[in-house]
Amino acid sequence: LPVDAFDIPHCYEGDLGAVIVPEGMIKDRVRRLAKDIHAKIGDNELSLLCVLKGSYKFFTALVDELAYARSSCTQPMTVDFIRCQSYEDTQSTGMIQIIGLSNLQELKGKNVLIVEDIVDSGQTLARLLHTLEELGAQKTWTTTLLSKNVPRKVDVKEDFVAFRIPDKFIVGYGLDYNQKFRDLNHICVMSPKGIEKYRNK
Ligand code: 5GP
Ligand code: MG
Ligand code: MG
C-alpha cells in the first residue's frame, strides 16, 4: 500500500517504501489469532513469554485479546519477558544473545507460549525452544506476528502465524532498524533512502 495514504510520522517521511500491513488489520488479525490459540490450548494455565524488544506491541495486543478469548477460563495467564538480539543493520549475525534468562526458572513445569515478532532464519526461535526445554517447561507453543517466506536455516515449529510475508526487511509495530521505527504504527518496508539514512556508520 502506498505510504502517502497513511498518517506517517514526519520524522520518517521518505524513509519507507510501502505499508504492507496497516495497524487496523493487525488488530483484527490478532483478535482472530487469540481465538485460534484459545481453541488449541484450551482452559489451561498459560505463561506468555514476550521476546523483547521487537514483539512488545504484538505481545500487549495479544494479551488483551487472549484475556477476552479466555474469559470463561478458570486458569490464569502469566507474563514473562526476555530479550534476544541477533540483527546488525538489516542482516542476522547468527549470534544470538539472550538477556534475562535468570528470571525464567519459574517457567519450569509450565505451559509456555513464546511470542515473537518475526521468524526469518528460524535460529532465534529454535534457540528459545531449546532453552525452554532445558528449563523444564512442560509444553511450549510459538506464535509470531510475521513469518518470512524464505528457506529456514533451522526447522522450527511455528504454531500460530499472524502474517506470512515476502523476504523484505520489515520495520514498524515494534520492529526496528538500528533501534528506529519501533514507534511506527504500521508494518512497513523501508526505502533505500531510509536504509542509507539510518545505517550504522
Ligand atoms: P532469525 O533468528 O529467525 O533469523 O531472526 C529472528 C530475529 O531477527 C527476529 O526476532 C527479529 O528480531 C530479527 N529480524 C529478522 N528479520 C527481520 C526484519 O525483516 N526486520 C527486523 N526489524 N528484524 C528482523
Ligand atoms: Mg525477535
Ligand atoms: Mg532488531
Blueprint (SSEs and pairs):
Layout: E1 16-21, H1 23-41, E2 46-52, H2 56-69, E3 77-88, E4 91-99, E5 111-119, H3 123-135, E6 139-148, E7 160-165, E8 170-171, E9 187-190, H4 192-197
Parallel strand pairs: 2-3, 2-5, 5-6, 6-7
Antiparallel strand pairs: 1-9, 3-4, 8-9
Helix pairs in contact: 1-2
Bound molecules: guanosine-5'-monophosphate (5GP) and magnesium ion (2 copies).
Guanosine-5'-monophosphate binds at residues 54, 86-87, 92, 116-124, 169-171, 175-177.
Overview of this protein structure:
With 201 residues, the chain is of the alpha/beta class. The protein is built from four helices and nine strands. Bound molecules: guanosine-5'-monophosphate and magnesium ion (2 copies). Residues 54, 86-87, 92, 116-124, 169-171, 175-177 line the site of guanosine-5'-monophosphate.
